[in-house]
What does this fold into?
Amino acid sequence: MDMGASRVDWVDTAKGICIIFVVMMHSVLGVEAAAGETGWMHAVVAFAAPFRMPDFFLISGLFLANVIARDWKLYLDRKVVHFAYFYVLWMTIQFVVKAPVFIGEMGAAGTLEFYLASFIQPFGTLWFIYMLPVFFVVTKLAHDWRIPWQVMLGAAALLQMAPIPTGWLLIDEFAARFVFFYAGYIFAPQIFALAAWARERIGVSLGCLLIWGLVNGSLVALGWSAEPGVALVLGAAGAGAIILTSALLVKAAKLGILRHCGENSIVIYLAFFFPMGLTRVVLLKLGLFDIGTTSLIVTVVASVSPMVLFWLIRRTDRGWFLFRRPEWAYLNGTFRGKRQAQAAE
It folds into this structure.
């Protein structure tokens, strides 16, 4: 989700698919919770649950091998401070927007305490960019300490399969997701080879996707998709399916909008919460559509609105701080280095 990363068409398409599924999940579950009933979009969200976040984390680790050997100062700037800036900024924005509700429920003191606690306990929809710096640091430490990748991957797989419901999102999500991030880092060459293979074997790839879809959907319907071991396999298989799908879409030059969404996935991820909430409230009050259709409309509006905001920022050249770190938010000496590297490209 780093907007400075090199562009690869199928990777951006895969990120686009994932970010749409993320927005869809929050939109659908939010509408259903507010309405007190489920709609036809619920089945789509349930189908995507086993692979939605595993694939996002796997893709986030794909290019890490290119920078893992950097000195710690530059590495921390790009992989920790970068995401910390956006987390703190957008967490604060969300708190400001939701402050009247929070104050009404827990008072001013309780709201302030909740805000401060969000520096330790990831807040709401922003937990993904809170976790990424943790994954980057742990992987860098393992690299520098020369821990065999087989040991790291095995330990991460065991953590994923172990039931660890501590209630602390940082611990629970680390245990559940790190294996996919680390696999993306370790198996990046094989993953890129898989994408190239899919482009050359369209028929076989479509057959694999059909089999995967039937198995994934069946296990979700049976309620087995979250079982230890099964969740790990489905997460890996689903990530592979998204890779195949993305490679085939790029090969066929279809749905370029997904690639565009993937290029700007951090824009959508950071800013979708407000149009999502506003559209949900308005549509439920109007009562014009069934719950499933309402959920779909909310998903579309929540996905498109951040892109409109980003377009306005580029047109007016104002508000860049929302999606691009200002100079003061870089560690000393790293901002100029980044500008020089960009100028040389």
Remarks:
- Residues 12 and 262 are 4 Å apart (CA to CA).
